[in-house]
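USER:
I wish I could look at a protein chain and see how it folds. I am handing you a single protein, as its sequence and its fold in token form. As I understand it, each token names a local backbone shape. I hope you can help me see how the letters and the tokens relate. The protein I mean follows directly.
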Amino acid sequence: MTSIDTPQAFIRALKAPSDPPAQGGRLKIEIARQIWDDSSFLVPNKAEVVVDWILSKFLKEKDNEITLNPLLDLRFWTLLNDVITSTSTGGSSGTQTRPLKIWLPPLLSRIPVAPSLVALLRLLGRLDPALRSSIVPVIFSSLAIIWPVSAQKMNTEAMLECFGAFLTAYHGAHVADDYFMRIGSLITTSYRNSVSNSSNKKKVYSVFLQNYLPHWLELHALSGSHAAFSDVVYDAGIETLFNLDILRRARDSKTDTELFEAIAPVLTSNADVYAVLPRIFASYIESIKKYRGALVSQSSSQTPGSANAEIQTKGIQFLASCLLLLDAHEQSVKTWSARVALLKVVDKESLFDRRNTEAAMVLDRAIGHALESIDIKTANDLASYAIECLSTLAHIDYDMIVPLVPRVLSKLLLLPGPHVSSLEFLDLILAYHNKTRTVNTFTEGLVNALSSAIEAASSNNSPIELYQSALSSPLFNAIHLKRLSKALQAFLSGSQVLPLTQHTFNFLKQTWEKCNVGRGHTEERSPKRRRTVNMGSTSSAKSQEDCSAVIFSLLSHLAMTVFSSLPLHTVTQELRDELRSLLNDIRIFAARIVKKVMKPLTKSDQTVWSLSVISSASLRLWYALDVSGHLAPVPFDDEKLYKRALKALQNEKLLPELLIEVFRFLFHVSLHRDQSSSQAAFNHSLAYLEKNFQVSPASWSGQLHRLSLDKQGQKECALALMHMIVERWLPVIETFASTEQLQRLIQVMMSIGVAENTCRSIPELQAETLLLQVLHSAQFWELHKVRVVFLSHLDQIVSGHDDVSNTDSISASTTVGAYRLLLTLPVEYLSRSARADFARRALNLDRHISSSAMPLKAKSRDLTVLRAFLSRVFSIPNGIDFSVEHLCDALKHLITSETSSALFDETLEATTTGLLKLIFFETFKKLQHSSSDVVSNLISDFAQIDLRLISDFRAQSFIHMITVLNGDFKFKGLPNDLQFAMQQIYQTLSMATAPQLSTLQIETASVEDVRDYTRLMMLWRSLLCLRRWIGSKDAPLPFLATTLFSRLSAWNHDSTARYDIHVAALAILLEEFDFCPENDRSSRLDYITAAYTYTLNLLPPCARQQVERFLPRLCSNLSASEFSQLLDLITEDLNCNDSSEMRINLLQMSTDLLRSHPQGTLKQTQAFSSRCLQILLSWRDLTDCPIELRLQALEFVAKNCAEQPAVLRIGDMGSIWILVTNFLAGSSVHDKDTTPEIFHKIINIISALIRLRHDLVIHTLPHLGSVLRQLLMMVRTVRPSLGIKQTSLVTATLPRWVNATQPIGVGEIKVLSRLLETLTTKSMVRNNAPNSETQKAESLAKPFSKHAAYVLKAYITAMNDPLCLLPSEHRRELQRGLYALCSMIGDHNRDAMMVSALDAGGKLTMKALWKEYEKQRYVGKG
């Protein structure tokens, strides 16, 4: 092999016709790599030579097979990337090289990159994903430098070929990685710029449609999570499809079928593309609006609005073409979704004009398709989209829908299941009739639709199916009926009430006559006569009667809503009397029907479905009228009706729906009957519940018409009956029921039980849910008789555990279930003795379960329930009367039992800990008045704590005891023997703990060891607390915290154990400070400050609260000089530290110090506050620093102003205003996302100053006005479709933390409006002035009146800014604040402002604002 030792040999080797150049030698790529890496081998323009060779090889061999193609060889791309990146950064490899910008453009002009790139992209689409992901990053790195230079020399056709190749490759790759999409973004951006400046857009358009449109559409249909990349590619395609030249050609030809001819086959092959059509439609409308000046004639002969009309015409033509594409394919969810989205674009862009006949025809066809798709046999999803389509059309122009409302209502009646879209459509119709005051017309339409729809569908559907489908339809949905009721009450006029009532009643009577109940019953009783009747006519008559029964029942449901919602208070007395007479006739009519229909039902042991639904509907109507309040209460005296209702309950085949209505009727009339008959009726319901009420699979949808006669239906019916009783009739039942009956009812209820996890995401009513609702109901607990029976039943269940020796696992489980129920009820309803009994039995059962052989999981679950109940009992002040001995027994059990030594889960541990603290508190509370050897012995037992098993629960219990003593009791307030026991236990444990703590090997400890060390350190901290509580000063105290911190710095495991041990060490350090000698307190305070900030910086934000709670106790023990020293340390750190994290922690610490300052340190806190404000101003990068630091800085100022207003001085106001102004100043650079929290904190600062320190604000009113003007200018929103320069003009006025794509929201506008209102609100100054008690509440309205005009002018400027918008919801929320400014200005200043400060547009805005202000201003007297 010939060696390469000269530049000429190197170049000859690269240009050799064969590869390798010499047979058996190295490949050219290996030679090139070696020469490039060898910096001592000098070649003139080495980089240019290598790049020239690589690009030439790419071009020549681009058509080779994948295995032999250099385009897919990582070595070539790596070398190319190394060469151009080294050269572009100024580096060299062995020789002086000309700059890249000098030699690369001529090279790329000589060697085109486009053909190689097209070939590369086609190969990448077929490449293995693993291999592609390894090579694509290097390719992108190289193209990022080469492509921008090459694109300048490339024509649009070549650019389109590259763009199309990428679309094809992306389609073939299926899953594209990040670098592959970056390559696409490079190509797409260049292509879009090229198309924009091309003079041959029509040719590009044609090629794009023929070759690349399918892949472009499919890319957007499957973009998924790559939305930003998809938007870039989409914009390039839209620039191709809808540029000015193409739109002009479409205008001249009146239609553009070429695009839709290209889209049609794509829709056939890929249904996902349907979703792209609405977006293309919206882009088309945006494009013709963008180029409206060039597309629409601007001659003087044009009438006003003609330009908009032409845009509307073009938009409707495009819509018609899109809808034709959808109509040509099979109807599915995707086609309907696209159709709805297209119509929403029409609504959003206001493209419909009722004078345009073509538009009306297009939308009429859409309405026709929607009506065809709403049918009882249509899939629910399609019907839902069809209804949403009608809703959108109603938004566009309601007049198109008005004639079709009856048809739509008829179809909705037979549409099973409530849809959100159906309810929205009904809301639209109802809102229209509310506005036009024609709710009666809508209601009458509903009545008419019921009859016609059922009669039309009766031939193809059984009556039962029709009945259940109609009552499950949106028309009878509870939400719609409630809204209809509100509409009738609010918008039904006095002249419409009587006709509507008569119309509904007449329809009911006519339908009842068609039911022909009497003749049907006669035929049933005459078998001989029935045999003579033609069987066909009998079947037809029976079907007609069932159909009429369905109509009657549905009408009764609707009539119940109508009659109950009549606004009788709005009509005259004469008309009111007439209406009440009519309603009474309807009530009598319903009762007569019930009596007539009940007669055959009581004499038959079979279910007559038609009679049952008529009877249930009539009973429901009668009940609704009786409780509506429209009729005077009349004692019930219809004995025949009552007896027939009772007798009907004996029929076991009675329809469940009717059964519920009969029970409701009996409970209602029991108020007017004697106790014995009411108890007899209640016995029937109890018998039914005891027979059929079962918990396991029973759930009820809340719809009575869905209840069936099978076994499952009877269970659901029993659940429905129980629900009705406990929700409505329990107070009534209590008045007449006997104790035995209430016991039976409670027994049925208690058979439910409450499982461990009762929260289920099941929409239907379940027995467990019902029981919980009852137990959480205040009404239930206010029923004395029921409460007594319920508690006695619970007492019977748990009374068996007075002697735990007789307790088995089954009875224990039952009792735990009873205690689980007790957790759901308010314990205050239990008497003191009952609470004591329940608590005593719970402790007995706890001992039994703790020593039993139950599975650990079940044992933990049961103990958690028992101890949670005990915690609730002991948490009531004086809620339980236990002796000290009993309390000590409970403590010993909890401390020493096996279940406490090895707690099974966090829930049981937390519950046991809380219970221990409560019992300790109760024990020591009793010992304040007497002594007890039992307690002294219990405390002495803590000396047995084994420090080698520090995880033992005994040590944790000791820590909890010290916490209770230290927080709630005084050492001198306890008996002498107990004081002695405390001193002994301190000496014993401190002597044992201190040596172990001083010898801890933390540096080499494992995570488990560190957890044990943490427990040992917390024990030592408790001993320090005990020493301080005792007041012991005898023995010298070893100071261990500094040693622990030095050892902790070498242990760097990243786990929660690391955080916990640092917190424990800091707690010890703070406790030791109380025992520090006076001459060492200053140096110790320095160490505490450093340790505190170090620990705070170490902890995650969610865990910092446990450290921050140490600071108030530290501050309470500091003298004024020590507190001043601490503040000086913080100030020095704030001034010198450049770390953002440390600054955040120091600011948080400063906020806590100001909140917890000792008494008599006002001067120090004032000086510290002023220095902190000056330091914040000295941070030049504060408004550009991380968002967390910005928020913390504003939080410091806001807390200072709101919680410590007396600290502020007049000199601080300038610093605060400068800081706020800096945050509101415009910026050329903006964050990725808007941070509304900054806006809220600024508002909080200003609001606190105005409310609490307006005595300082009054001296800086110009600054306040300037800040308010800045805030008002921020509410603007950039107009869409602005150019880059125009957008930058607006964004330059916005602060850094506001991104123009995410403008200030409505919530922020509300708080700004409230701030403006605060200017007129009177408040008291909070300072330390001696005359603070005699000051008057004042506002800033009068002094600020001279500055309010300039603030109002800022709003007017924002309104009239031609580059911005002020959304209507923003203006609406700002109104109250603007009215406050208007009230300060007054008429004189307004006139002066109109003359001198406003232009023509501003004057119009001011007049409109003042007119609205005058409307709402109070002008009365007194």
Summary: The CA atoms of residues 842 and 866 lie 6 Å apart. Confidence is low (pLDDT under 50) at residues 91-96, 519-537. The radius of gyration is 42 Å.
